[in-house]
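Internal ticket #5521
Category: modeling
Description: The requester needs a full-assembly model to guide mutagenesis choices. All entity lines are attached below as received. Residue total reported by intake: 346.
Assigned to: D.W.
Attached entities:
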Amino acid sequence: MKKPNYIAIAATTIDGRIAKHSRHFSSWTSKEDKDFLHAILDTCDVILVGRSTYDMAKKPLSKRNCIVLTRDTANKKDTPGLTYINPTKKSLPQLIKKCDYKKIGILGGEQIYSYCLEKNLLDELFLTIEPVSFGFGLSLFKTKKLAQWKLKSIKKLNNKGTILLHYLKSYGK
Amino acid sequence: MKKPNYIAIAATTIDGRIAKHSRHFSSWTSKEDKDFLHAILDTCDVILVGRSTYDMAKKPLSKRNCIVLTRDTANKKDTPGLTYINPTKKSLPQLIKKCDYKKIGILGGEQIYSYCLEKNLLDELFLTIEPVSFGFGLSLFKTKKLAQWKLKSIKKLNNKGTILLHYLKSYGK
């Protein structure tokens, strides 16, 4: 049986910020990045997001299968295609297995990317770098876990210089 | 008379960290990045660094003209090619002008990159991205000043996927 493939998709500034703060919506990214994002999400069986990211993108995400990671599942109702889970209480990989999801798109934010990295639930990373610097804000990862990656491809998305980097996680290092 | 050209040179992880902490020496970068760094420094008239970066790289920097930015110049002796300056008390651009330096290589760390960005003393950025993530550490910039950039070139430096991005600062935006 094929192992599920966990793919993080993120956009950062040249100074490595994915957002100015936890309520900063990703409207600052280029049209070309958004086009890529929608295209790759269309290929995923399910989207994995944190609660605040989900709340900000509820409308566009409502048409997709979503697993929302949250500490507080008490007042959250699951609906078809939408599952809330506290991964410290229930097993995320078991849920993925039960639903037979094979391609998991991880949409962030910082806590979710970090959680997946720590738990070895991150096989690939599509990283868009927009030609802007914020000077402050959230990073891609906030964790003590170092990781090695292998660059698979580079693509220039537009004339102003948005680039898309595709990395594979190096295991066993 | 030609305006001086301020060029920042930095290496980051894929999560945007230039170092794990302020005493973390840049030994984690690839040989290919170091080769590029030395080659571009050879073309600069002077190197601009913060005191802690200078103290860590004193030996390799001793053969180059250096301006060291520091709050405490009291116990620092200038020697030929080496000038300590507190930029809140003396003008850095005036010093550059007086010495007739035309190409200034900015080597960091975070405070110096940020200072130069804030003061419009940053025209170009050579950013190496190493295929590793730290999960924590210092960023390229720590400032409230947002900036727009234009990507001039992308170069793959080695097989594991170290890349070198060359950005020009966009002014007037």
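Resolution: model delivered.
Comment from assignee: The helical segments of chain A are 31-43, 51-56, 58-61, 92-98, 110-118.
Ticket closed.
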